[in-house]
Specification:
The chain is mainly β and 622 residues long.
Length: 622
């Protein structure tokens, strides 16, 4: 039968009939066939409409996912902004001169595709960098930049002076803080420029004679120059003299008595100045000798910060008469105590090849407080020198050999000179010291008149603080009350407890780093009981030692007491003996005024309990 094409209307009607029949079959329970087998699951072809609906849903879901992925991938969202193309750099020299005006440029740029809503630039400068000018101007090295369009940049310049010690490395840091447009978080970019001080605009030169004889007057000059247009204040010039150079005076005056430091209150730009120092080399000086000069400033901690150091070398020719002054066998400065006897040895020798004639020797003593430290009435001088004020002089009248000293010959003079036994009650000066030097004068050399004079380097003896130590073991205190326990005299196999008392008296100078220590004798045990006015008392079990320490003892504290209890159980081999309780007590401290170390000691303490009258004669073990 030939195929007859249906009209559109016929197709539509047929399609509607099929859809109605399908829906009726699905949703009308009565339409189900009784022969339907529900025990099997047969695959049924889905209708065309259902397939179309599901396909359209999948298509639109995929399309939505692709759209959102493209939106997140191609859009500059907040979560993707990292600021890699926002930059800040610091440009300028990495090595500069101290005191020189230096300019640094801080460049910032936004190469991101989005604008920056806000931006702020902050510079963190070293504390020794002084700002002289900025562009744009600001009061606190912070600039509010504001918004920055994509591709835009800017520049900030800062000018200043670094007054810092040589070889000092310091960091100049730029911090750019910004927030992208329509973004809630802030970002930062940091740039650091490390700058090293390699030189200074303040210059110094030491000048003097290239050759000199010991004892001859030497004129030295320390010439300084501000090689910049900047003004400086309170620049310090220091001299480092060798031990055998003896400065006598300076112009301008030194800020200290040793003629080693001067302060230039004002040093304008390009200004120059000089410091003149007069002195001489000691008779023992010989050969090439360096004299050093330094220029610098004091920082906020009053520490000297070096700007420049220079060295001048001179040659000291060998002298004809060499003299030395020794105190207690040494030519060095040394600490002394009240009541000490100063023992000086004065030696001289002709090291030349010709005869020295009419030689005189003078020992000069300078004291603080003036004329009140030495006990001149107790001076011992076998040679019988003539004393005038604080000077003792020997000539050929007292020492005949000084009339003519042949080449290679010499001699020695000895004197003893005590000092005060205790501080002066009327003196407010807490510093006591004796400075001594030996001066030799030669009238003629091999018959020719020369009138040459030479000195030894001074020897300084500083009186350290009047600290005193006492140590005592007790069974009864000063009021007769028992502070110990157990049998007295001690008995074999039984415990007797004693109290050890330490006492420190001090009034002259402040003390630092105080320490008291002793070792317990065999068979002696610390009970764990102790008492201290200040400081910390500990038992070192490893070394069986009692150790007390204190950081500082001011002069307002005149006395400190430390005590601890120990117990002894004598053994049979100690019967009839007076055993030790503790070994020697050692006291160590540092005198804050003189910076010298103090070392005092007390003998070991025994069961004899010296000083405890009620326990007298009861120390022998029974």
């Amino acid at each position: 039968m030939p195929f007859k094409k249906k009209s559109p209307i016929e197709n539509s009607v047929a399609h509607e009939s099929e859809v109605d029949a399908e829906l009726h079959r699905i949703y009308d329970p009565e339409s189900e066939s009784e022969e339907q087998d529900m025990t099997r699951l047969d695959q049924v072809d889905h209708s065309f409409v259902k397939k179309v609906l599901v396909g359209m849903m999948v298509f639109f879901a995929v399309l939505a996912a692709i759209s959102w992925a493209g939106f997140f991938f191609f859009s500059p969202q907040k979560e993707k902004f990292a600021g890699e193309k926002v930059s800040v750099t610091v440009e300028g020299p990495s090595e500069v001169k101290s005191g020189e005006v230096t300019t640094y440029a801080v460049h910032w740029k936004n190469d991101e595709n989005v604008a920056l809503g806000t931006a702020k630039l902050e510079l963190r400068l070293p504390k020794n960098f002084t700002v002289t000018k900025t562009d744009p101007s600001t009061e606190n090295t912070t600039w509010q930049i504001g918004s920055v369009a994509s591709g835009h940049d800017g520049l900030v310049t800062i000018q200043g002076v670094s007054l810092a010690p040589l070889d000092k490395a310091m960091d100049l840091q730029a911090i750019l803080t910004y927030r992208p447009a329509d973004f809630n978080s802030e970002f930062q970019k940091v740039a650091t420029r490390t700058v090293t001080i390699k030189d200074s605009v303040v210059e110094l030169e030491v000048k003097g004679p290239t050759k000199i004889l010991p004892g001859d007057k030497v004129a030295l000059t320390l010439a300084y120059h501000n090689n910049s247009s900047n003004d400086f204040k309170n620049i310090h010039v220091r001299a480092i003299w060798p031990d055998n150079f003896i400065p006598d005076s300076s112009t301008p005056d030194s800020t200290d008595t040793t003629l080693k430091e001067w302060v230039i209150v004002d040093l304008p730009g390009n200004a120059r100045g000089t410091i003149a120092v007069n002195g001489s080399f000691a008779s023992s000086a010989e050969g090439k000798i360096d004299l050093r000069g330094q220029v610098g400033f004091l920082d906020q901690s009053a520490q000297f910060q070096l700007q420049r150091e220079t060295v001048f070398t001179t040659t000291v020719l060998k002298g004809d008469l060499v003299t030395t002054l020794l105190l207690n066998g040494k030519a060095d400065d040394q600490p002394i105590h009240f009541g000490d006897t100063l023992r000086y040895a004065l030696s001289y020798k002709n090291t030349g090849s010709v005869k020295l004639e009419d030689v005189s020797l003078s020992a000069v003593f300078e004291t603080t407080p003036a004329d009140k430290v030495l006990r001149w009435n107790d001076l011992k001088d076998k040679a019988g020198g003539v004393r005038k004020g604080n000077t003792i002089t020997w000539t050929k009248r007292q020492v005949p050999s000084l009339a003519n000293i042949d080449a290679g010959e010499g001699g020695t003079l000895d004197i003893e000179l005590p000092i005060l036994a205790e501080p002066l009650a009327s003196s407010k000066d807490a510093t006591y010291q004796v400075t001594a030097y030996l001066q030799a004068d030669v009238v003629r050399i091999d018959g020719d008149k020369v009138n040459r004079s030479a000195k030894t380097a001074p020897v300084i003896a500083k009186v350290v603080s009047d600290a005193r130590l006492s140590a005592q073991a007790q069974f009864f205190n000063k009021d007769g009350i028992p502070v110990g326990s157990g049998p007295l005299p001690p008995q074999v196999g039984k415990e007797t407890t004693y109290r050890v008392m330490w006492k420190i008296d001090n009034s002259l100078h402040e003390l630092t780093s105080l320490k008291l220590s002793t070792k317990l004798s065999p068979g002696v045990v610390w009970t764990g009981l102790s008492s201290t006015d200040a400081g910390d008392l500990k038992f070192d079990a490893g070394n069986n030692k009692m150790i007390w320490t204190l950081n500082w003892m001011p002069t307002t504290i005149k006395t400190l007491n430390v005590s601890f209890d120990i117990k002894l159980s004598p053994t049979d081999d100690q019967r009839g003996d007076v055993p030790n309780l503790i070994d020697s007590t050692i006291f160590e401290a540092v005198d804050k005024v003189t910076s010298d170390a103090l070392l005092l000691s007390q003998a070991p303490l025994t069961t004899a309990l010296v000083g405890d009258d009620l326990a007298a004669g009861k120390g022998k073990v029974q």
